[in-house]
Design brief:
Helices cover 30% and strands 15% of the residues. It is an alpha+beta fold. The longest helix has 11 residues.
Length: 145
Amino acid sequence: MRCDLHVHTRASGMCNVPWLRRICRESYNEPLETYRTLKARGMDLVTVTDHDSIGSVDCLGSMPDFFLGEEVSCRLPSGTRIHVGVYGLQERHQSPIEQRRDDLIRLVHYFFEQRLFFSINHAFRRSLDAARRRTFISSARPSRV
């Protein structure tokens, strides 16, 4: 089974790199164009993980092989900004995610409660210290799943 779990469309908005955010977007691709490209490249399932947006669901939600994802911007307790990919969302999850994005521990607990698959994106980026990341992930996991 093939599926790219980190795909952006125009719904991601402007680039989040500080010196680029005023002049370029994360992606210039329309959701339907992105879907067709992924299918042409052999993906069995398609998801879109736009930054802090589920805007692509309007275009793609009726596709039988599409499942909703999002790349959620949030912060570790240390203040380090990270992106978390979350998959298998429903629109009802959007508001609770939005309410928890500034408290990653609460957000992770919500993902476990809702049985949502998630990943820490860009995990090996230099700005995210590996030791702090491991410590946080270990402490954030609920004692019972």
